[in-house]
Structures are given as C-alpha cells and as structure tokens.
Design brief:
By secondary structure, the chain is of the alpha/beta class. The chain folds into two domains: 204 residues, Glycogen Phosphorylase B (Rossmann fold), CATH 3.40.50; 161 residues, Rossmann fold (3-Layer(aba) Sandwich).
C-alpha cells in the first residue's frame, strides 16, 4: 500500500500511528469541503496522512494549498447531466486516483460518492469511506425526471458502494434505511454520525441580544429548504404588525435546480418582509445576533446550521422530516412543524417570541445537546478510526 511505519504517539487520548499513508478526498466543490470536512482533513494530516483533494474549484484552491492539502482540480458540475461531460469527469477522477495511489479514499456528496465509488471500486485501496450527507433533490422531487434519475442513481450507488472495504456514514436513520432496504449496501457497511460536527470553542453559548427579535434562515437559498414558506410567514407577520425581523443568511446556488433566482430574491427584499444579510464567513457571530433559527426544509442529511444554532444556544423551528427532526430534541431544544406550512412557522414564531423563558431554556438545552452529540472532536475521532479500518 506504500505506507511506512514511523512511530506511535498519544494525542487527546488516541493512540495514533504516524505514517506516509495517502488520504484522498473526492468532493463536488472546494467550499463545501472547507465548510464540512476541513477539520477532519487537518486532523488526518496531524496524524501522519498525506492529504489530497480532488474537486470542483471556485476561488479556494490557494487557501487549501496553504494548509498543506494537495489539490487536484476536477471539472465536475453538481447539476450537469451531459453524458460527454460526465464521462470526462470520470476520466479525470480516474487519472487522479492513478496518480495519487491513495491508501484511503473519502467520498463526499452524491456525485463524488457515485463516480468516486465507481472509479475506486476495483482499485487496490485499503479503506473507502463514503459520507451520505443527504439524498438530494433526486430522492425528494416526485417529478418524472427525478424518478428516472432516482432509478439510475440507485443502480449506480449499488455498483459503486457494495464492497467489503467500504464504510458508509449516514447522518440520520431514514437515509440509512433507504440504502439498506434497497440493497444499495449491506447493513454492516453502515454507521450513523449525526452531522459533520461543530467546534464548541468557536460556536460558544452566548446570551440573546436585546432589542427586536431576529428570526433567521441560515442556508443556501433553495426552495426545498423551505425558503418560500419562510418568506410567506414573514409577509403574514409583517401585515399583522409583528415587531421583529426575518433575515436570510446565505447565497443563491445557481448550480442547484431548486435555487431561487436573483429576481425572486430581489422581490423578497423589496417587499420589506425580509432582509438579506448575504453569505457570512463568521457564522458563529451571525447566529449570536439571532433569537430563533428557522429551517423549514423538505428533507436533509443533518443540517449544519441547526447544530451550530444549538451550540450557540438558540431555539430552533424546523420541519418534522428526516434530518431536520434528528438535529433537535422536540419540545426541549426546538419545535417541529409540518412540511410546507407557512402558517405553522407563524404560530411557532409567535409562541417562542411570546414565551421568553421557554425560548431561552430551549437555547440552553440546545447547547447541552451540542456538547453531548455534535462535538467536532468526537466526529474527528470516528473518522480517524474509520481511516485505520478500526470500525
């Protein structure tokens, strides 16, 4: 496998082996890797791994290279379905794998899992780790196109992932059951890790700010994250004389078929019902300005914004769907509402705004939940053990 034993040493209670092992991450785009997997990659480097990343590139390549990660650009499109372009991506991915000769591969996001799984399926790779962080619109949408794609994607997943050297991480039981029940993987290949973790030192518990209530939606501006329902609730409450702000934190994602358009966003803002605070590089600071976090999504893996909100001590309103319901303790750290119901958002917002003690107690309970279930250090430990083939 090309690894060379050097020494054993103990850090944070872990017996670790420093080697020349090569770890290759295959991801759709650089910013997603930074937001969801970078701490794991840095910890792997500290444990003696040479870390490579192949992904679509925006403007983050130099940032990653300065950290010591070896980046291999990939012409992958998250929404592209052109056969010739997809074959080109497969060839590029295969070339990277042949060049790097990784001992361990970690496949993250849908295309990376399928394409990376196909490319590495019969390679001499010690461990393959696959992160299913959500099933995407293909498993949500009931349109004809989505149903055809769902059939094809299921077949490809099965070919790509069903092997003895592959472990598949799910963020909720529902997604795991879909894969197992459809015989995409074997039951003993799966494990559940609730989200990508949160740095509890960065995301600190802070008391709510004084002044008018801030009701926050923090996510990519996608319709299937319940953005339309959030906006409708804001309109209803504004007309009723509600004294508070509905704010959007996040950007349009034009590579996703469920993204709102710039015109739609402009209309939302011009209505006066919502404010758009844009994308933030300091999410912890932004969350500290909120009183309530709302994510009325149609389905998730396990929403990072909700575990970050919990860590910061903010009550949550979210939908009773896979992923979202797994991010809270109902009635204790947040409120579950029906899917696609702006009226339910209105009711929940009014209730939490009216009952100050209840809302603040939910925030404190959320912090305790984050400490017990979402600590990034626990997530890192699990991944390092997976890379070693321990789990």
């Amino acid at each position: 496998m090309g690894c060379c034993f050097m020494e054993y040493f103990n850090v944070s209670g872990l017996v670790r082996e420093a080697t020349l092992m090569k770890l290759l991450f295959i991801v759709n785009v650089d910013w997603f890797f930074i937001s969801h997997r970078l701490p794991i990659a840095l910890a792997a480097m500290e444990n003696g791994y040479e870390v490579h990343l192949t992904c679509g590139i925006t403007d983050r390549k130099s940032e990653l290279e300065k950290l010591g990660i070896i980046v291999h650009p990939l012409s992958i499109s998250r929404s592209g379905t052109s056969l010739l372009k997809e074959i080109k991506v497969l060839k590029e991915m295969n070339a990277v794998v042949k060049k790097v000769l990784p001992d361990v591969v970690h496949l993250v996001t849908i295309k990376a899992a399928i394409y990376g799984g196909l490319v590495t399926r019969f390679k001499n790779i010690k461990v393959r780790v696959v992160s299913i962080s959500g099933l995407g619109f293909v498993f949500i949408d009931e349109g004809i196109k989505a149903r055809i794609l769902r059939f094809l994607v299921t077949k490809l997943y099965r070919i790509a992932l069903k092997s003895s050297n592959t472990k598949v991480i799910f963020q909720n039981k529902n997604d795991k059951n879909i894969f197992v029940n459809n015989k995409i993987i074997r039951p003993n290949q799966s494990l559940i890790v609730r989200g990508s973790g949160v740095d509890l030192e960065t995301y600190k518990y802070l008391a709510e700010p004084s002044g008018e209530k801030i009701i926050m939606f923090l996510a990519r501006l996608l319709k299937d994250k319940g953005l339309v329902e959030f906006f409708e609730a804001a309109i209803t409450l504004k007309k009723s004389g509600f004294k508070g702000k509905f704010v959007l934190v996040g950007d349009i994602d034009l590579h996703n078929p469920n993204s709102i358009t710039q015109n739609e966003l402009t209309n939302y803002i011009d209505s006066g019902a919502v404010e758009h605070w844009g994308f933030s590089n300091n999410v912890a600071e932004i969350i500290s300005k909120a009183h309530i976090m709302v994510l009325p999504s149609y389905r998730e893996g396990l929403p990072k914004s909700l575990i970050e909100a919990a860590a910061c001590g903010r009550a949550v309103i979210t939908t009773d769907v896979p992923g979202c319901r797994d991010a809270i303790t109902p009635h204790k750290t947040g409120v579950l509402i029906p899917i696609k119901s702006s009226a339910a958002i209105v009711t929940a917002v009014l209730d939490l705004c009216e009952h100050e003690v209840k809302r603040k107690e939910m925030g404190k309970a959320g912090r305790a939940l984050a400490e017990s279930q979402f600590d990034i250090n626990d997530v890192i430990t699990t991944h390092l053990n997976l890379y070693k083939g321990v789990l």
